């Protein structure tokens, strides 16, 4: 009789987003005349920029002719995209990353989940708390996290690094030494960032203890402040300790198209073995390439027109972020994030629990958000709002919150 991977049975279930959806549906059913505004959206809402649409049309037409038709893409991505990424995201920022250290994929969610394949199950992971849930759940599926302690909402074999008001929502170096450290800046859910010198400390630490940093820079395009690094490779020594994950989802609206990439420098080794060679083997065996037309669309993001148009979209979302942040401050809330990220992290008033505030906000303002406790124990008492809605809805939602 076959046996299943019973690590899956230990998973607590995706309580957060299914409960948000259930509660929202129940409210709408009971109050059909009320317009609920979703500031809980983690997805973009602006249509694809014209430069991207043009590249899609052009490459679709190429597929109709034998001379320009493309079948399987190269395992690691088309050279035209990898060299464009190397030039624009790395060389132009002074980062020493070459095109053949870039692995094109269908997005950062799958890469952040799959990267665990190349590490031993004995490795100990450290994550920020609150955290993007994929990092922990995928390690749990591999059996790397121990047992789930429901009363604490924690796994027994994970190092949680609390990101609290006291540290400006940045993690501190852990007391116990991890093997794999997940960092995500700008951060989902808190919207926080760290400076280049703070990130340098992490790189120095990882090199000292022999840990690898998995650096998720999916929100890099939202950075507006000068001392916030766009890539971990801006730090000295990162080539020997860091993997970087990037996505086209939030900078260019590819959540439905699907495109991302992972950078693994050739200097990142365990003994004589490069992680680059392991990921190349994994990628080539289990992934059959992002579609040609999507890779051409990705290339167009870096064209002059593509850069200008996607910048405008980000500015649109960040205008919403400002409306949310300033409005909440005026209403007396304690708020952070929203400057280098499309996420606003607020402290619930009067020590309300995250879920009590969720109900209160839905009931009184008919606004949906996401309870912070769903992202980890240190998220309790916090709440996430996002800037991905329309400007009009965002303004209306904040007016309603002010009137609560
Ligand atoms: N990483 C973080 C921190 C995210 O918040 C998200 C999506 O919300 C992703 C990765 C997923 O990116 P992709 O759409 O490229 O899979």
TrEMBL record:
Recorded family membership: Belongs to the class-I pyridoxal-phosphate-dependent aminotransferase family. LL-diaminopimelate aminotransferase subfamily.
Keywords attached to this entry: Aminotransferase, Pyridoxal phosphate, Transferase
Record's function text: Involved in the synthesis of meso-diaminopimelate (m-DAP or DL-DAP), required for both lysine and peptidoglycan biosynthesis. Catalyzes the direct conversion of tetrahydrodipicolinate to LL-diaminopimelate.
Annotated pathway: Amino-acid biosynthesis; L-lysine biosynthesis via DAP pathway; LL-2,6-diaminopimelate from (S)-tetrahydrodipicolinate (aminotransferase route): step 1/1
Reactions that this protein is recorded to catalyse: (2S,6S)-2,6-diaminopimelate + 2-oxoglutarate = (S)-2,3,4,5-tetrahydrodipicolinate + L-glutamate + H2O + H(+)
Positions of substrate binding: 15, 42, 109, 132, 188, 288, 384
Top-level taxonomy: Bacteria, Bacillati, Bacillota, Clostridia, Lachnospirales
Required cofactor(s): pyridoxal 5'-phosphate
GO MF entries: L,L-diaminopimelate aminotransferase activity
The protein, known as: LL-diaminopimelate aminotransferase
Binding site for pyridoxal 5'-phosphate: 72, 108-109, 132, 188, 219, 247-249, 258, 288
Subunit annotation: Homodimer.
UniProt-listed Enzyme Commission number(s): 2.6.1.83
Main EC class the enzyme belongs to: transferase
HAMAP family named among the record's database cross-references: DapL_aminotrans_1 (MF_01642)
Modified residues (N6-(pyridoxal phosphate)lysine): 250
Residues of the Aminotransferase class I/classII large domain: 34-401
Pfam families in the cross-refs: Aminotran_1_2
Keyword tRNA-binding: no
Keyword Transferase: yes
């Amino acid at each position: 009789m076959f046996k299943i991977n019973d690590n899956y049975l230990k998973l607590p279930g995706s309580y957060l987003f299914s409960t948000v959806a259930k509660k929202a549906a129940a409210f709408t059913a009971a109050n059909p005349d009320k317009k609920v505004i979703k500031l809980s959206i983690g997805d973009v809402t602006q249509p694809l920029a014209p430069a991207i649409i043009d590249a899609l049309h052009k490459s679709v037409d190429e597929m109709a002719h034998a001379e320009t038709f493309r079948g399987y893409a190269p395992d690691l991505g088309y050279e035209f995209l990898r060299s464009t990424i190397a030039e624009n995201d790395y060389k132009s920022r002074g980062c020493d990353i070459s095109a053949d250290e870039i692995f094109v994929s269908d997005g950062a969610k799958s890469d952040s989940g799959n990267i665990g394949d190349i590490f031993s199950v004995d490795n100990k992971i450290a994550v920020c708390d609150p955290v993007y849930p994929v990092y922990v759940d995928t390690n749990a599926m591999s059996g790397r996290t121990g047992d789930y302690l429901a009363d604490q909402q924690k796994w027994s074999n994970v190092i949680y690094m609390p990101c609290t008001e006291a540290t400006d929502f940045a993690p501190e170096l852990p007391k116990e030494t991890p093997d794999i450290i997940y960092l995500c800046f700008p951060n989902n859910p808190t919207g926080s960032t760290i400076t280049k010198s703070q990130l340098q400390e992490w790189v120095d630490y990882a090199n000292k203890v022999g840990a690898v940093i998995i650096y998720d820079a999916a929100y890099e395009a939202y950075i507006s402040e000068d001392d916030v690094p766009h890539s971990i490779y801006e730090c000295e020594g990162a080539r020997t300790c860091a993997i970087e994950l990037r996505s086209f989802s939030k900078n260019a609206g590819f959540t439905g198209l699907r495109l991302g990439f992972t950078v693994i420098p050739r200097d990142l080794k365990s003994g004589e073995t490069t992680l680059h060679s392991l990921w190349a083997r994994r990628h080539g065996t289990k992934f059959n390439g992002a579609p040609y037309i999507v890779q051409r669309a990705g290339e167009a993001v870096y064209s002059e027109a593509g850069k200008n148009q996607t910048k405008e979209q980000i500015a649109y979302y960040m205008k919403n972020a400002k409306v949310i942040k300033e409005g909440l401050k005026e209403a007396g809330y304690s708020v952070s994030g929203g400057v280098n990220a499309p996420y606003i992290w607020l402290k619930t008033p009067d020590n309300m629990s995250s879920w009590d505030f969720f109900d209160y906000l839905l009931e009184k303002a008919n606004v949906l958000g996401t309870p912070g406790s769903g992202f980890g124990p240190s998220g309790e008492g916090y709440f996430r709002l996002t800037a991905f809605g329309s400007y009009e809805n965002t303004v209306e939602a904040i007016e309603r919150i002010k009137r609560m």
